[in-house]
Amino acid sequence: QVQLAESGGGLVQAGGSLRLSCAASGSIFSINDMGWYRQAPGNEREMVAAITSGGSTTYAYSAKGRFTISRDNAKNTVYLEMNSLKPEDTAVYYCTVNRREGWSIRDYWGQGTQVTVSS
């Protein structure tokens, strides 16, 4: 089992910045990709950013150029630096990791952290 502890959410004005953190614990060996999803009221959950074990990153179109994902493998932690925040970024942000378990890949999810951007 993998447990994910998210932090860093909060209330910020449009144009401001936040840094989200997610620390993994438990059976953390063989973790591959790490990433962030978000879900706003009435919307489906969408991928925001992801980073592979090798450091390759991918971003949603809406996040590219404003958000930066990074990871610290020594701390088993993934970060999301969010700049130039917009009201439409308001959502619950979920940390996710996947882990190789035998020949399969299993996804794990955090409980979510609220990000609210005021206009």
Major pleated sheet: 7 strands, mixed
Using DSSP, what is the number of strands? 11
Question: Mean pLDDT, rounded to whole units?
Answer: 96
Low-confidence stretches: none
In DSSP terms (H or I, runs of 4 or more residues), the helix count works out at 0
The rounded distance between the terminal residues' Cα atoms is: 40 Å
Class based on secondary structure composition and strand pairing:
mainly beta
Helix content bin: under 10%
Residue fraction in strands: over 45%
Characterization of this structure:
With 119 residues, the protein is mostly beta strands. Helix content is 0%, strand content 61%. The chain has no helices and eleven strands. It has strands at 2-7, 10-13, 18-26, 31-39, 46-51, 57-59, 67-72, 77-82, 91-101, 104-109, 113-118.
Write out key terms for the chains shown.
119 residues; mainly beta; 7-stranded mixed β-sheet; 4-stranded antiparallel β-sheet; 11 strands; 0% helix; elongated
In short:
Strands 2, 4, 5, 6, 9, 10 and 11 form a seven-stranded mixed β-sheet that branches. A four-stranded antiparallel β-sheet has the order 1-3-8-7, with no helix packed on it. With 119 residues, the protein is mainly beta.
